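Appendix B: a complete holo record

For completeness, this appendix reproduces one full record from the ligand-bound portion of the collection. The bound molecule is zinc ion. The inputs are the chain sequence and the ligand SMILES; the output is the full three-dimensional arrangement of the complex, encoded as C-alpha cells. No fields have been trimmed.
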Amino acid sequence: MRPVRRIGALALVLAALVAPAPADASTIEIAALQSALQGLQVYSGFVDGIKGPLTRDGILALQRRRGLSVDGIAGPETRRALGWRGRPGLGSRVMRSGDRGWDVAALQFLLQRAGQGAGRADGLFGPLTRAAVVRAQEAAGVGVDGQAGPVTIRSLRSGAGGESEAPPTGPVRFLRPVPGPIGDPFGAPRNGYTHTGVDIPDPEGTPIGAAGVGTVIYAAYNGAGYGNLVVIQHRLGYTSWYGHMSTITAYVGEEVVGGTLIGYVGATGDATGPHLHFEVRHYDTPIDPAPLLFSTVAARPTTTVRPGPSGGCDGLNRGGHDDWIARERLCAER
Ligand SMILES: [Zn+2]
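The structure of the chain with zinc ion bound, as generated:
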C-alpha cells in the first residue's frame, strides 16, 4: 500500500472524528458539498455523496482560489467560502419554493436517491423540486404540502437505502429500448474521456420504447452531445437516458411504462450515424446498463418507420429548472 493511501485513510478517520453522526449523514453532507462546488464550477463530477478524488480536487481548487489554507478538508472556513451554497444546515428550516442553499441541495439529493426525480441537486428549490417533494410525501403517506420540513426529511432519510422501501428481491432491470445488439459499450475511451452509456445502432426512424416504469423529467435538445434527449426517472434513484433521437414524442411529466413510445432513432447531436445512445444513472452516476438489460425489447414493432426532422423538438419543455441536463455530456472524466 502506498503512502498516499494511508493519508487517504487518515483523512477518513479525521472526517469520522469531525462528524460522529451516522454514515448516512456524511453521505448527505458530501452530496450538498458536491452540489455547492459544482455551482462554483470547481467540481465536474456527479452529486453522488461519495468523496472521491474529484471532490477533493474541488475543495482544493476553492481553497486556493479564496486564499484559504489548502488542506482538502471542508471545514467551517471553506463552508463560509461557499456563500449561500454553504448554508443553512439541513433541518434548520422548513424549505419551500424559492429557497436556496446547502439544505436544499441535501434535500434534492435525498429526493433523487428515493427515486423522486428532483433533477440536478443545484441548491435551488424550483418547480421540479416541489413536484418531487409532493411525490415523496404522497409515497410516504405524510401530509402533502410541497414543503420540506422535519417529517418529510425524516421519511426521506429513513426510506431510501433502508429496508422499508427496498424492493423484495433483485436489482433493477430494464427492457431494451430498441432492437439490435450493443455496439460501442459503456466505458469506451473517447479522447481522454469515457463513454457514459451504450450505443445501439438502428435505422433512422426506429421507434424507441421506455425501458421501464417512470416519469419523464427531460424531453428536449441537449447541446452538449446528446442531441434530442429524453430522461426518465425510475424508482430507487435510477434514471434512463435516450440520446440522438430524430424526433421526441415524450413530454416532461409524462408517466410511462416499459414500451411507451418516447421517440425515434436519429443522429442528432454528437453522432456519426443513426443509433440510440442509452444510458442508465444511479444517483446521477452513469453505470453500465448492459448487465441490467432484459432480452425483451420494449419498443413495439411497427410497419411505418417515421423519420422525423432532426432537431424537431422546438417548444418542448425548454428552460426552467431542468436546464442542467443541457450541460451534461456523453462522456465523463472518471
Ligand atoms: Zn453513446
